[in-house]
Amino acid sequence: MDLEREFERVVAADHRIEPRDWMPDGYRKTLIRQIAQHAHSEIIGMQPEGNWISRAPSLRRKAILLAKVQDEAGHGLYLYAATETLGADRAELTEKLVEGRQKYSSIFNYPTLTFADVGVIGWLVDGAAICNQVPLCRTSYGPYARAMIRVCKEESFHQRQGYELLLTMMSGTQQQRDMVQEAVDRWWWPSLMMFGPPDAESSNTEQSMLWRIKRHTNDELRQRYVDMSVPQADKLGVTFPDPELAWNADRGHYDFGEPDWTEFWQVVKGEGPCNAQRVEHRRKAHEDGAWVREAATAYAAKREKAA
Amino acid sequence: MSRSSWPLYEVFVRGKRGLNHVHVGSLHAPDDEMALRNARDLYTRRNEGVSIWVVKAEAITASSPDEKDPFFAPSGDKVYRHPTFYVIPEDVPHL
């Protein structure tokens, strides 16, 4: 078929597919699922850190944290906008999220127990997100790639503020240093799981690589993240809770242990420490905001009539 | 209330004086005024713009991707519209 050949030619030439181009149904569905899941992650991701806005230890930290959480909302909106270019309905996606019919990144189902978690999320969780997202700036679907370029620019601030926060705590009391190490111990393994299951078990990877939606496999990105993070941990003065973590001169990479994939699948299935709480909070915020959306609509209609 | 009662707007931002407005994305808003404010909050949180246009997506008329070849064909065979079409002796200055 001509249309299909044209699509394949554009993808193979590393050009971008744009909204009104013909595309295979599977490509469209895969993109909607992936981008929606990504958008949901940004929106749900506001909660673990939002938890600390009212208790930030200084006005400076509070302003930074507010700006960061506002960015996450923005990232969610860029991405929902990208799904709409594929024919998805934003309100329907929100319904799917609050009804538990669409997923988001499992990392946000872990609790933020201390203020050090805010720093560790910025450093490790956003660091892992950057590893995942930088290659997506070259993904084959134009609107997704452009949204990711904006997101990546802003994520850099997120990661740096987290690392700076931790540097500050590490130069404080022993209690503060312990708090940082304890947060690192809790977030390290979940952050490795952010890259998804091992390549052998990743059902979507192969087709997504062919369509150039994905540019690297889960394991490649996970390795890149470990290699980047170890020197940063050294500089900070913390360790990762992995006895197998060691430099491998032959490979030119760090060796590391296997994450607990049983835990991963449990959290994916909804049995993580905060799954129910996160979705419930999102549902409540959505429903509590209904009167605002309705009032704005009524006001717009009234003005249109008057005009 | 229907789910998508807020219309879709396309957003264009002028990065700085002297540049064109460029399409940056879309958003939903109940009316033009709110669309402009939402666009400011969503697309210019870091001084990315000095001017914003919002326009309802339904007001845009676009060329169809299906007929892009015939649609743009008229300019395809007019190489004489490009300066490189003309051979000028090398020793002619400023041309």
Protein described:
The complex is a heterodimer of chains A (307) and B (95). Chain A is mostly helical and 307 residues long. Chain A has 13 helices and 2 strands; from the N terminus they run ααααααααααββααα. The mean pLDDT of chain A is 95. In chain B, 18% of the residues lie in helices and 22% in strands. The longest helix of chain B is centred in the middle third of the chain and has 12 residues, at 32-43. Chain B is elongated. The model of chain B has no long low-confidence stretch (mean pLDDT 90). The chains are: A mainly alpha (307), B alpha+beta (95). The A-B interface holds A 18, 20-22, 67, 70-71, 74, 77-78, 81, 84-85, 89-92, 95, 143, 146-147, 154, 290, 293-294, 296-297, 299-300, 303-304 and B 1, 3-6, 8, 25-28, 30-31, 34, 41-42, 45-46, 62, 64-66.
Radius of gyration of chain A: 21 Å
What would you report as the Rg of chain B, rounded to the nearest angstrom? 21 Å
- For the largest beta sheet of chain A, what order do the strands appear in spatially? 1-2
By secondary-structure content and strand pairing, the structural class of chain B works out as alpha+beta
List keywords for this structure.
heterodimer, A: 307 residues, mainly alpha, 2 strands, B: 95 residues, alpha+beta, Ubiquitin-like (UB roll), 3-stranded antiparallel sheet
Summarize the SSE layout with pairings:
The complex is a heterodimer of chains A (307) and B (95).
Chain A: H1 2-12, H2 25-44, H3 46-50, H4 59-84, H5 90-98, H6 115-133, H7 142-170, H8 174-193, H9 205-210, H10 218-236, E1 246-248, E2 253-255, H11 261-271, H12 275-288, H13 290-306
Antiparallel strand pairs in A: 1-2
Helix pairs in contact in A: 2-4, 4-7, 5-12, 6-7, 6-8, 6-10
Chain B: E1 8-14, E2 21-28, H1 32-43, E3 51-56, H2 68-72
